[in-house]
Amino acid sequence: MSLIDGKIAIVTGAGAGLGRSYALALAREGAAVVVNDFSGDAADETVKLIVDEGGRAIANVADVGTSKGGNALLQTALDGFGRVDILVNNAGILRDASLVKMEESQWDAVMHVHVKALYTATRPVFAWMKENGGGGVIVNTTSTAGIRGNFGQTNYGAAKCGVIGFSTSLAIEGKKYGIRVWNIGPAAATALTAHMPEEYQRQFHIDRVAPTLLYMVSDLSGDQTGKTLLAGGGWIGEVRFEATEGYVPTETITPQEIAEAAGAGKIFFPERPGKWVTAYGPQNGE
């Protein structure tokens, strides 16, 4: 028996890349898939690949960054398959530039796809899952740019850190209804990494991320919710925000006192000279 037999999944941005890999993996494990992509030709191609393998899939070309598009996405699932059990918010774009050179249109475009669409695509699906009492799983896409930052990606980093806040809050709302919410931070070789060595392309093959997604949306992950997993290059690990033990100041706290406590190692996490951890596994020092 397959992992998710009979489940109905929606994948946004599934016309190519990771979205297509996710859609194919979900179909191979027994799910019927709504393939969303802004390009109708790309969505149709993914649908054809799934159907040719004996799976079930239908296309949707709505702009999920609008309420109309988000509602249409849900309606496509209901019209085609009668329900929805899994939502994968994968659609994304890049509009990189250093902050001073970044135009407002570049900022707005990234927020539209990564943040606005998170609301407009998830809201109707979450409401349907809640009202119909069957639970479900929602997987949202974050990135190390939102956790560690990256040059030229203040828009993307802000959006992807926002995804984590959205998911953490939604996981709390969904828990009593059996709706689980995850974040996945994928690393995969795509057209943007075509210049990288062949070894990189092989290690970060795009299909090496989907098994983590399948774990999240299947019963294998139990009742876990509100967690963030990074996956790529053969490495999988959880990311979470933590605070240090901290320092309890005097009643007359001053900036100078804080500086002294910081210098004594009582506030910040200790540095680890000579050794650091990348987003996708331990590495030697720089």
TrEMBL record:
Record's protein name: Short-chain dehydrogenase
Organism: Hyphomonas johnsonii MHS-2
Domain of life of the native organism: Bacteria
Family: Belongs to the short-chain dehydrogenases/reductases (SDR) family.
Keywords assigned: Oxidoreductase
Gene Ontology MF term list: oxidoreductase activity
Presence of keyword Oxidoreductase: yes
Occurrences of domain Ketoreductase (ranges): 7-190
SMART domains in the cross-refs: PKS_KR
